[in-house]
């Protein structure tokens, strides 16, 4: 079984994603306990792909969407996102980054910005898209001088969150053509 994305929650405890579940590994005893599993249905490729600690929440990015797990109460819930490409892209979570006390989330061609309060409300009301791109996927989000750098399937973009503006810094096809 592939193990991915270990997350330290305390000096004596790690969280591991294994297929469709999240396990807590106690150190040094190496006792493994399952704390979360999502229903992937009949999809043999369904799995947890990303774990990210955000304050007292563990965010679990899966091939079926995003879940929040409260590390204090052990309650968990799906995050309902308003997404135009959900049917086409299947809500696959590509990237989660915590920047300046906010969570930035890339799902398909969409970028979401969330606070912890919004994540706690997300079980009852959908969250809206901050930005939507055409025909690309957001794969990585990094902070950069008052903006975000977005690594996508079409190239590298700079997103100014305050102005809600994008600029293309580098196009993926340029490496092929040598520009």
Tag the structure with descriptive keywords:
single chain; 179 residues; mainly beta; four-stranded antiparallel beta sheet; globular
How are the SSEs placed, and which strands pair?
Blueprint: E1 3-10, E2 13-18, E3 21-26, E4 31-37, E5 48-54, E6 57-62, E7 65-70, E8 76-79, H1 86-89, E9 93-99, E10 102-107, E11 110-114, H2 116-121, E12 131-132, E13 138-144, E14 147-152, E15 155-160, E16 165-171, H3 172-177
Antiparallel strand pairs: 1-2, 2-3, 3-4, 5-6, 6-7, 7-8, 9-10, 10-11, 11-12, 13-14, 14-15, 15-16
Question: How would you describe what is shown here?
Answer:
This protein has a four-stranded antiparallel sheet, with no helix packed on it. The chain has a four-stranded antiparallel sheet with strand order 5-6-7-8. The chain is built from three helices and 16 strands. Residues 83-89 have low confidence and may be disordered. The protein has 179 residues and is mainly beta. The chain is globular, with a radius of gyration of 17 Å. The longest helix is centred in the middle third of the chain and has 6 residues, at 116-121.
């Amino acid at each position: 079984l592939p193990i991915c994305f270990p997350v330290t929650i305390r000096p004596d405890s790690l969280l591991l994603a294994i297929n469709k579940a999240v396990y807590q590994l106690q150190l040094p005893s190496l006792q493994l306990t399952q704390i979360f599993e999502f229903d992937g249905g009949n999809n043999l490729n369904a799995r947890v792909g990303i774990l990210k600690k955000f304050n007292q929440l563990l965010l679990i990015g899966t091939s079926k969407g995003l879940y929040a797990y409260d590390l204090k109460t052990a309650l968990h819930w799906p995050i309902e996102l308003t997404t135009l490409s959900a049917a086409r892209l299947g809500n696959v979570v590509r990237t989660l980054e915590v920047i300046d006390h906010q969570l930035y989330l890339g799902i398909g061609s969409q970028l979401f910005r969330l606070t912890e309060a919004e994540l706690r409300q997300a079980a009852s009301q959908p969250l809206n898209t901050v930005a939507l791109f055409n025909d690309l996927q957001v794969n990585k989000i990094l902070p950069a001088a008052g903006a975000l750098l977005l690594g996508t399937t079409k190239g590298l973009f700079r997103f100014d969150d305050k102005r809600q503006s994008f600029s293309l810094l580098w196009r993926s096809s340029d490496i092929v053509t040598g520009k």
